[in-house]
């Protein structure tokens, strides 16, 4: 490769995600313990479940499993979100989805920066759940004004990373040397700073209004607050966490345990109380503590269509109406029982999920299909060809997040497991204005992946195009 050849954005994303993981492991040792636990359980699961092993191999998911993780940051002002979009674009990560968390009592709205095409997801599906504080939801006018002033004065990006973003935009990418500098410089924005930018008194005022406001407003930058590996058996990891000195939250967010996993299940361990210094009389500052950083694991399942998602949302809402988890999490079992009982209404085999149009699948020709095509005796729809054994259908993995689950993860790290449901209006327009772009519609991305796979499979079988 010549010195001025451009590095592929997927490669920069992999370099960045691995550098971020190393940094977080050094900053939060429990994250390293969690990674080991997840790797052990994934090995056990794969050894015991050959069908799962085959399906992950067939879907090209096995290779990405070890590098797969997501993280999260919380930003304070529109300009930060705008520049963050440009920074992530250098690594082939683009805003997908709009999440309104105010409905669950968290004063932010969010998107997920992630790779979007199939090849990029296979290479490294690193995602960052990115939230923007909604200052207009702070009721106290003085406090809102103070928060605005503090945020206006901060700059979370290094001068060098800004130059490199411009360079990447101008030249359509970065050279190897520039990419390495970019990763080092970009990492600075996500680093933990134990020096707060405000006095203990200001911190406490923000903290009393909402702990999240203190976390976003009082520090130099949007420290990465967790990194989440993907597990193949979240129940096993949740159960084993205490044995390795980690204490998980009361319940796993998302759907219940199923034979055919759907969407996303997540659980986290409590944020750590860390020593920080507030602006004060002595040069070192006034010592105090702040809790922000935690650990999380996730298990991903098949992506749902709009129809499937509507069923999921309805069932989940009915569970949450029936049982609301209390602050101590002591009624967690009641919640789980209710969840399992109500989700009996959600079909739990891939064939029904596919035929009823509840989930997305990737189609590919089987060997029998290719043989039959040579003899020219194929006909039918995608579903019929699957029935005849000429096509196979593999679940398309859900690459996104769930607003109710995300709010639960936020809540459990802001003090207590209590679930809340607030009513406020979402404001996607304002979010996209700050972002300087519109977010992509995740359902359209899955639908396209499914349709492209059908088109390719039909081409390979010498058939005319069809829809699933
Ligand atoms: C983000 C919480 C949401 C997820 O996986 O749903 C999240 C945060 O606490 O900033 O990470
Ligand atoms: Ni998360």
From TrEMBL:
Family matches, as InterPro entries: HGLS (IPR009770), YdcJ_bac-like (IPR047869)
Signal peptide interval: none
SMART domains found in the cross-reference section: DUF1338
Cofactor(s) essential for the protein: Fe(2+)
Origin: domain of life: Bacteria
Keyword Iron: yes
Enzyme Commission identifier(s): 1.13.11.93
PANTHER family membership: 2-OXOADIPATE DIOXYGENASE_DECARBOXYLASE (PTHR39479:SF2), PTHR39479
Protein name per the record: 2-oxoadipate dioxygenase/decarboxylase
């Amino acid at each position: 490769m010549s010195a001025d050849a451009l590095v592929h954005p997927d490669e920069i994303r992999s370099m960045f995600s691995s550098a971020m993981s190393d940094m977080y492991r050094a900053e939060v040792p429990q994250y390293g313990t969690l990674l080991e636990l997840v790797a052990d359980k994934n090995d056990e699961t794969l050894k015991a479940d050959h069908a799962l092993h085959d399906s992950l191999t067939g879907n090209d998911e096995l290779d990405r499993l070890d590098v797969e993780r997501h993280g999260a940051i919380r930003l304070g002002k529109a300009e930060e979100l705008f520049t963050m979009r440009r920074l992530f674009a250098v690594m082939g990560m683009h805003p997908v989805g709009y999440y309104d968390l105010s409905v669950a009592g968290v004063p932010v709205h969010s998107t997920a920066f992630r790779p979007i095409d199939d090849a990029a997801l296979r290479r490294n599906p690193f995602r960052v759940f990115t939230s923007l504080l909604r200052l207009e939801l702070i009721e106290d006018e003085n406090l809102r004004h103070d928060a605005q002033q503090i945020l206006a004065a901060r700059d979370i990006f290094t001068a060098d990373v800004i130059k490199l973003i411009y360079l990447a935009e101008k030249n359509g990418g970065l050279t190897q040397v520039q990419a390495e500098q970019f990763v080092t410089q970009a990492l600075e924005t996500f680093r933990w700073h134990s020096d707060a930018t405000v006095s203990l008194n200001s911190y406490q005022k923000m903290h009393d209004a909402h702990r999240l406001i203190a976390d976003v407003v009082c520090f130099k930058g949007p420290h990465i607050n967790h990194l989440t590996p993907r597990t193949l058996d979240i129940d096993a990891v949740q159960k084993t966490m205490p044995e390795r000195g980690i204490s998980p939250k009361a319940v796993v967010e998302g759907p219940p345990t199923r034979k055919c996993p759907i969407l996303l299940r997540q659980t986290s361990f409590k944020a750590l109380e860390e020593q920080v210094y507030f602006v004060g009389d002595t040069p070192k500052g006034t010592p105090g503590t702040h809790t922000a950083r935690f650990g999380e694991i996730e298990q991903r399942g098949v992506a749902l269509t709009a129809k499937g998602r509507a069923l999921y949302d309805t069932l989940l809402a009915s569970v949450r109406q029936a049982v609301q988890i209390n602050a101590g999490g002591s009624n967690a079992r009641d919640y789980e029982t209710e969840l399992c009982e109500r989700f009996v209404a959600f079909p739990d085999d891939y064939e029904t999920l596919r035929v009823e149009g509840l989930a997305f699948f990737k189609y590919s020709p089987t060997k029998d299909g290719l043989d039959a095509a040579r003899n020219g005796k194929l006909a039918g729809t995608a579903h019929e060809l699957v029935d005849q054994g000429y096509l196979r259908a593999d679940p398309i993995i859900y690459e996104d997040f769930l607003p109710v689950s995300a709010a639960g993860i936020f809540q459990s790290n802001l003090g207590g497991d209590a679930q809340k449901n607030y009513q406020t209006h979402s404001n996607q327009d304002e979010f996209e204005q700050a972002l300087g772009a519109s977010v992509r519609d995740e359902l359209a991305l899955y639908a396209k992946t499914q349709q492209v796979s059908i088109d390719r499979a039909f081409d390979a079988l010498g058939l005319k195009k069809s829809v699933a």
